[in-house]
Each structure stands twice: as C-alpha cells, then as structure tokens.
Amino acid sequence: MVRLGVIGAATVLVIIIIAVVASLLSSSGKGALQSIIQVAQDQAELARVATLAQTQAVDQTVKDLAMSVQLSQETASQQTLQYLSKNHMKVSTKTLGQKANAQTTTALTKAAADNTFDTVFLDAIETQLSTYGADLQHAYKANPGPNGQKLLSQEFDGAKLLLEQAKQATPSAN
Q1: How many CB atoms lie within 10 A of CB 54?
Q2: Residues 26-53: tens digit of each pLDDT
C-alpha cells in the first residue's frame, strides 16, 4: 500500500514537472515569435519611409538608397511573414503598421517644404536601420530555432549593408 502511494505521488510529480517544462518551452517560442513580429513591423516602417523618399528626395544617391531600402525590406518582410505563417502566427496589416511613426512623416513633410528632405531622410533612415538591427539581434537571442536564426542572421547582414550605405550617402543638393 505504501509503495503504491509513493509511486502515485512520484507519477503526479513527474506529470507536474513535464507540464511546467512544456509550458516554459511553449512560452519561450511565443516570445521568440513576438520578437520576430517586431522585426516585421520594423521592415514595414522602413519600406514605408523609403517609399516616401523615392518621390521626395532630390539627390540621386538618396533616391538610390531609398530604392535599396524599400526593395530589400519588402523582400525581407515577405520572408519574415512566411516564416511566421509556417509557425502558425498570422500578422495583420494593422499589426504590421503599429511602428508607423507619425513624427517621422511630419519631419519629412516639413523637410520637403524646407528643401532639406535628403538630410532629414538620411538621419531618419539611419536611426530606423539601427533600431532594426537591434531588434534583429534581440529576436535572434530569443532563440526562434535554427530556421528563424538563419533568417534573422541573413536579415541582419542586409541591415548592416544598408546602414553602411546610408552612412556613406551625402546629398549634394542639401
């Protein structure tokens, strides 16, 4: 009888431990996916701002940078959203737009009127690319698994190249 009680208690304890471990593993996966959603939001905002610059920029170097940022971020966004979808996370357009920065839009609109668009855009895009890089690193450290880490690593390499390109861009018109 005592043995049966000990075996029963041990079984219950093992089940509780398994449930706790499974819960921790499950929540850490969701945390990693939430970090990747933030990356997708960065990508959407970068593409949005770059699209504005393609029509408003004066200097061809700045327009070229804007085109590079837009195309790379639209491609990265497709890959990121595909990864999230494969991991059963659907991200709405509204969620993607949550990092849309009205202050950036206002500053760019004012800069266009003041004939300083290129300089203001370069400052804004450098800041956004730096934030994007930090968010990519954070998401990578959240351990989304080997496929997620591979994707984030590739996106980080692309972000570094864009940031270097942005830092080297100097508008001649402003």
Answers
A1: 15
A2: 434 578 899 999 999 999 999 999 999 9
